[in-house]
Amino acid sequence: MTFSAPAPLTSLPEWQDFCQACHTAQPDESSTRILTAAGLHADFSGQRYSSAWSEASIRLLEARGFSAQRDALLHGGVCNPTEQRAAWHTALRSPSAPKSAITVERERMNAFVRDADAARRWRHIVHIGIGGSDWGVRLSVSAFGYNKLWRTVRFVANIDGHAMEGALADLNPHDTLFVVASKSFTTVETLENAARGREWLAAAGIKDPSQHFAAITARPDAAQRWGVPEGQIFRLWDWVGGRFSLWSAVSLTTALAVSSDVVAGMLTGAAAMDTHFSEAPLAQNVPVQMAMVGIMNRSVLGFGSLNIAPYDFRLGNLVPYLQQLDMESLGKSVDLNGDPITVPTGPAVWGMPGTDAQHTFFQWLHQSSEGAPVDFIVCQHADHKWPSHHDTLLAHCLAQREAMLRGKSYEQALAECQREGLSEERARWLAHHRVHQGGRPNTLIVLPRLTPYSLGALLALYEHKIFTQGLVWGINPFDQWGVEYGKVLAAGILQEIQHPTGVIAEHDASTNYWVNRFARPLRSAD
Ligand code: F6P
Q: Which of 150, 218, 490, 511 is the most buried (most CB within 10 A)?
């Protein structure tokens, strides 16, 4: 599949038709639009919709060559032209994958875990990694290990020494394994933290600290040079993006902390969503519909962000996971031709689990001047033993959704105040403060239950949504040039802080001031 530069989006008549259809479509409170994929239910009833919108969406996707591009994605075509790579994360979970490097690495990982479990070895795991080498593992461990871990699992991502210091607290060095996840094996935070781990082991009198390390990387040679035993290095490949890598041996910590079955279940669920994405007609294709609704809300209706509201305590890490997946993929404004994209692209993604979110920022979602579309995510069945808790959780999720959509008119608010016995004057004044604008779009995703399968399907759903949005916007969702510049600047400033010569490079005045102030040993006492 050779890369073909897309036409500028706004030059397409299909884009103009789509915009027109977005403005004329409306949510219809009297009907539902619920689609199902890989066992998940996606309720789009809270989004604008019309048959004209649906048809215009499909024509726009066809104008972007959706089917051919989807085939390229699913079959290892070059979908990342700026890095000249495939984006073949789906191969990592393909059930039909022949015995290949992928299955060999997966079996090596599973064998490592089997041996460690049989020997009751490595009671403590310290996972060192950041971004895509961290969030997916944190998510799966917190989703399925929240109440049944025989191993202690700590995560260290940040270069801030407090993170490593806290992670090492009260661990037994003799029974601690450091899992270093880094596709590039060059990430400063990860290498520095790994070095502190090695020093900690040596300080405890461990003769060969390197035996306490495993690594997952696309640079096995670099890991071996660092000192990780070859038999404990697991491969990743260049054609797997970091934020798409939890399907690889990056999930070693999940397998050790919870079980290899959890990893396998997530792969199976994601593969089921891949099949749906590949085969479902576009009008019933859940990732496609999520994508088009998202483009409508972002690029046409002008919502600046997307709120993720998982109504499940175990999915707290879903928000940062999706922040990286979405914002590192779509936080771009240049198309594949190198031309500026003249419509708003990639929203800011934010959120937290409900019901906590209701007591944190739902006021803003209900009554701020703009609000944000919300992806509500909830499991129909819970895995704890208090049914009334789950009933209440479900009720709050549905109620918040209804309030955002339907709102509360002035007349309703006034009647409410009058029923409370307020004076007519006070009621007429206070009612203004109780009006909810409504018409705030939302999608409800219902998982039957939180299982490795359903979580895998959910994450693949978002991956394919993001791929489809990148295609329509003309964005390469698989590179991340925006994260490199800051790293280069930081290397120079670090040098100036650690080895001050009195002369510093040309910065802005504020940066100059603070580099001078932070420079060692000149760092001022206060
Ligand atoms: O944030 C930039 C980034 O390259 C991410 O894309 C990646 O997940 C993270 O840093 C860690 O990179 P690595 O796995 O190479 O250490």
A: 218
Task: Say how many Å lie between the CA of residue 483 and the centre of ligand 1.
Answer: 9
Residue 6 has what pLDDT? 84
* Structure-token match 């219902």, residue found: 446
Q: Return the DSSP state at 45.
A: T
C-alpha distances (whole Å) from 8 to each of 3, 152, 300, 465 are 15, 51, 16, 21
Q: Alpha-carbon distance 233 to 123, whole Å?
A: 20
The Cα 476–Cα 86 span in angstroms is: 12
How far does residue 339's CA lie from ligand 1's centre (Å)? 26
**What residues have CB less than 8 Å from 422, skipping those under 6 apart?**
430
CB neighbourhood size of 164 (10 A): 24
pLDDT digits (tens, 9 = 90+) for 99-128: 689 999 999 999 999 999 999 999 999 999
Could you tell me the two tokens for 39? 């066992």
Is 359 among the catalytic positions?
Answer: yes
Nearest CA to ligand 1 atom 6: 242
With contact defined as beta carbons under 8 Å apart, do 238 and 218 qualify?
yes
Residue 294 to residue 343: CA distance in whole angstroms: 13
> Is residue 207 annotated as a catalytic residue, yes or no?
no
Mutate to test the pocket of ligand 1, among 184, 238, 322 (most ligand atoms within 8 A of CB): 184
CB-based pocket (< 6 A), ligand 1 = 130-133, 182-184, 187, 190, 242-243, 328, 480, 483
CA distance 85 to 76: 9
Q: Which atom of ligand 1 is nearest to the CA of 132?
A: 8
Active site residue 487: yes
8 A C-beta contact, residue 266 and residue 455 = yes
Pair 301, 21: CB distance under 8 Å: no
Closest CA to 430 of 444, 449, 410: 410
pLDDT of res. 499: 86
Which CA distances in Å does 4 have to 81, 84, 472?
9, 13, 14
Q: Where are the alpha helices (DSSP H) in 217-314?
A: 220-226, 252-257, 260-279, 286-295
Summarised one tens digit per residue, pLDDT across range 8-35 is 999 999 999 999 999 999 888 889 999 9
* Lowest mean pLDDT across 123-127, 296-300, 429-433, 519-523: 519-523
Report the C-alpha gap between 350 and 366 in whole angstroms.
16
Question: What single-letter DSSP state applies at residue 381?
Answer: S
Band the pLDDT of 493: cuts 50, 70, 90: very high
Quick check: pTM over 0.90? yes
Angle at 356 between CA 353 and CA 358, to 5 degrees: 105
